[in-house]
Amino acid sequence: RPVWFPSIFGGPPRPAVQPPPQETPERGKPGDGPSDADSITRAESKQELEPTGPKTAVQIPVPLPVVQHEAGPDAGRGSPNADSSPDEQTTPKASATTPEISVPSFALSTPEPPSDAPKLSAPTLMPPPPRPPTLRPPQTNSTSSSAPSLSPAPRRTGNLPIPPRGQPGCSTLAPPPTHSSKPAKPSRAVSLSPGHSPLDWARLSGHPTADLRGLPPGTPYLRVTPSMLKRQTGRKGKDAWTVLGGKVYNISPYLPFHPGGEPELLRGAGRDGTRLFGEIHPWVNYEGMLAACLVGIYVPEEEGDEAAGGAGAVGGDLEAMD
Ligand code: HEM
């Protein structure tokens, strides 16, 4: 393999002593093991195991005899010692304990685990990756596997940089400056009197038979004209009507329940409050909340059913509309 380098880097032309195609089959031969790293490792481990095991297995280079060789000394040593479980007879644990003592490559990791833990010595065949000093458990004796997973947590938090505090705009509790630059719109909600919460209104108006229209029972839906609506302002003993989306509602029963207050709600009384309503809270489901307060539909003057008393029957028009 060193012969390649001069030819690659423009050195004097030399005939290749061993061309690449010839190296591969030679290295693949099981008998020429010294060139392969695995074969070297197996050979060294077998040599170290040889004093404790039978000598015949050392001469076999293939992996299968190695397993048989390791099972032999394990069974032989494991039977007098009561500390090993019966499952260890089939595992190649004997090879892990023995090279730990004599293989030169184990010298780097030997001081880390104690020699009485044979299962932890197996990964020492390959040197462990470098770990930061903060993640290393403080105790050298690794008695349980769960201990290392718990110990790095407090160490890690202790080494994390603490964000700066005390400066304006740097607090983690405060919103970002881009969000806090514009002051929030102050709420115009009022405190409702006891028994007039939104839930109370839902109980009062949510019943299917609830009738909060302020009309005699059995009165059909009305065709409400602008002149009719104008008189329903909530004053002079009359109910307050408003138009929302083409429908006329009696909002008088809802006045003490309105979160925005009675005066605000009365701004829409006697007129079409659709635009005003939509400017303040378009998300409010007025159709569901005022279903029991539905008086009728809003129609032009000439299409109204106004009689001398005020109301005319709508008939089935509103039901067809729904
Ligand atoms: C058309 C005249 C109306 C006006 C001028 C009006 C005005 C207001 C105002 C100023 C608020 C307080 C908003 C805030 O919290 O800052 C409010 C809240 C509220 N209004 Fe009205 N309102 C009207 C009609 C209605 C109607 C007809 C309903 C029910 C069908 C209603 C249901 C509510 C509800 C549920 C809230 C609380 C909204 C929330 O907290 O998000 N309002 N209203």
3D structure, described in words:
α3 crosses α5. This protein has 322 residues and is mainly α. Among the domains are: 31-127, no CATH class; 198-321, Roll (Flavocytochrome B2, Chain A, domain 1), CATH 3.10.120. β2 (241-244) and β3 form a beta hairpin. The chain has a 5-stranded mixed β-sheet. The model is unreliable at 19-58, 63-88, 117-123, 140-154 and 307-322 (pLDDT under 50). The longest helix is centred in the first third of the chain and has 16 residues, at 63-78. It has helices at 4-8, 20-28, 37-49, 63-78, 93-102, 146-150, 152-159, 177-180, 198-205, 226-231, 262-266, 274-280, 286-289, 317-321, and strands at residues 222-224, 241-244, 247-250, 271-272, 294-298. Protoporphyrin IX containing FE (HEM) binds next to α11, α12 and α13.
Q: How would you summarize this macromolecular structure in one to three sentences?
A:
The chain is mainly α.
CATH superfamily of the domain at 198-321: Cytochrome b5-like heme/steroid binding domain
Mean pLDDT: 68
Shape: elongated
Q: In what range is the share of β-strand residues?
A: 5-15%
Tally of DSSP β-strands: 5
Largest sheet strand order: 1-5-3-2-4
Structural class: mainly alpha
CATH class categorisation of the domain at 198-321: Alpha Beta
Tally the helices: what do you get? 14
Most strands sheet: 5 strands, mixed
pLDDT < 50 stretches? 19-58, 63-88, 117-123, 140-154, 307-322
In whole angstroms, the N-to-C terminal distance is 91 Å
H/E series, N to C? HHHHHHHHHEHEEHEHHEH
- The CATH topology of the domain at 198-321 is Flavocytochrome B2, Chain A, domain 1
Bound molecules: protoporphyrin IX containing FE
- Specify the helix fraction band: 25-40%
Integer-rounded radius of gyration = 46 Å
The CATH architecture of the domain at 198-321 is: Roll
